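If it is no trouble, can you show me the amino acids of a protein and the C-alpha cells describing how it folds?
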Amino acid sequence: MTDTGTREAAAIAAELSDIRARDPEAVARAARDRKRRREPVNPSGRALIVAADHPARGSLAIGGRPMVMADRADLLARLRVALARPGVTGVLAAADVLEDLLLLGALDDKLVFGTMNRGGLAGSAFEIDDRFTAYDADGIVASGLDGGKMLLRIDVTDPATADTLESCAHAVSTLAARKRLAMIEPFMSARVDGTVRNDLSPDAVVHAIAIASGLGTTSAYTWLKVPIVAGMERVLAATTLPTLVLGGELDDDSGAVYERWRAALRLPTVRGLVAGRALLYPPDGDVAGVVDRIAGLC
C-alpha cells in the first residue's frame, strides 16, 4: 500500500475502534440493514469467495513473511478493494473481521460465511482438537449471515478427531434446519515430526470428501471446499455436492497456478473458487488486478 493508503487504513481502523467502544449495537444494526444476496452464485453459476479467516486460528504468515496478516487495518483495506471488484460474490471470515466489514458497509449483496471452528490453533499441541470457538448456527442466523464454514481435519490416530466430526455433523444439521449453507473443508491429516500435515494425495482427498459429504441429518445445504490436487476429475467424482476449490498462494510460477484453477473450474460439480492470500496479498501487491484476473476464470 502507498503511504496515503496506509494513513487512510489506519484512520478507518481508529474509527471502527471508536464505534465499537461507544456504540456496540451498531454491529447489530449494520447486520440488520445489510442487503443480502439473493443467489449464492453469479448468472454463470459460479462463485468467487474471498477467505479471511486465517488470523482467527493464529495463522498470520504468507510464504516467508511470518506476520504479514497481523496488520488489521491493512487487511481490511485489501478486503474492501477485493469485495468491490466485479465477479466477487462473497467472503468468509470470523466475527471480528466480518463485523468490521459490516460497519464499513462492504458486505451488501455478498454471500457471507461465518467461520465456526477456530480452536485448532496453528502449530499447537491440540491443533486437531478443532473446537467450535467462533460462530455457532444461532449466531450466524442472528447476524443475518448466509452460512457457516467448518474445517474438518481427520487424523485417524488422534481421538480428538471424533469430537470434531460430531461437532461438524451437528453444525451441518443445525444450519440446514435454519436454511443456511454449511461449507465443509475436509482433509485427511496426520502429525509428521510433530506438525499437522494434510494428505493431498488423490485417494486421501476422496476419503475426506466421502466422510464430509455424509455428515449431518441432511446434505441439502452442504457445500464442500477442497484443494486442487492431481486427478481432480476422479477426485470430484466422489460427490454430487456443490464444490468450491481452494485458491492457495500465488508464487513465481503464477501462470501454472491460474491454469490449475481454470482446469478445475471446468469440472461439472465445481461451483467456484475460494481464495484468500492469493487475492489479498499477491506478489506484485495489485489486489484489484489479481482479483479481476481470477474473476475472469469464473
The CA atoms of residues 31 and 142 lie 9 Å apart. Strands lie at 47-51, 90-93, 111-115, 147-154, 181-192, 195-198, 222-226, 243-246, 270-275. The longest strand covers residues 181-192.
